[in-house]
Amino acid sequence: MIKDNLSAIYSELPSAVKLVAVSKFHPVAELQEAYAAGQRLFGENRPQELAAKVPQLPDDIQWHFIGHLQTNKLKLVLPYAALVESVDSVHLLEAVDRWGRENGRIIPILLELHLGAEESKQGLTEAEIRQVLARDWPGVSIRGLMGMATHTEDETLIRADFARISALQQSLRQQYPGLTELSIGMSGDWRIALEYGATLVRIGTAIFGPRPLSR
After folding, report:
1. Residues 165-177, buried b or exposed e (16+ Cβ, 10 A)?
2. How far apart, in whole angstroms, are the C-alpha atoms of residue 80 and residue 61?
3. pTM above 0.70, yes or no
4. How is 16-84 classified by DSSP, letter by letter?
5. What is the domain partition of the chain in residue ranges?
6. Which of 36-40, 112-116, 180-184, 190-194 bottoms out in mean pLDDT, i.e. has the lowest?
7. CATH T-level assignment (fold) for domain 2-208
8. What is the pLDDT of residues 74-132, one digit of tens each?
9. 78 within 8 A of 96, measured Cβ to Cβ
């Protein structure tokens, strides 16, 4: 099933867009099945789970961290993550930058824009993102933006969210051409995200099926 699901998604995915297989809460055996089908990019959102899975799987996997990251959990994530997609506050960015400098690393990251109507969502404002980009961060490499659309069946709202983050990225790239990545789109809305310039789509349920109950 996983192989067939991946094949179906890749048949629609432009070659320039990367598929992040969101594997949170799914057992290692299912990740191995996806790996056997050719998938090499996986996304996790819990530090402990990421750190536990890494040694059980092949070294050529690229891991993206896509969840809220607490500063006291950096050592469980930053040694392994090829990209931290979810830098959602200046406080976290400062901690990641400090960890990178102290460990002789430059950590690739995306800045998470607060999108959608939910007050509980994490994320930076557009003004904060512009302020961040005006500063020097020796321990990180800011590669682009990430966002999650409003959780709704209303396609108009989803499109408005994607249009907003896409417009911001295009505006910022005029001054910061290195901001090439735009991570938007999940299992329910990734096809829409492609219309707004997504370079990364984060898909879990459409690959692995409904995730098991969180542990």
Report:
1. bbebbeebeeeee
2. 10
3. yes
4. TSEEEEE-TT--HHHHHHHHHTT--EEEE--HHHHHHHGGGS-TT-EEEE-S---GGGHHHHTTTEEEE
5. 2-208
6. 112-116
7. TIM Barrel (3.20.20)
8. 999 999 999 999 999 999 999 999 999 999 999 999 999 998 766 656 899 999 999 99
9. yes
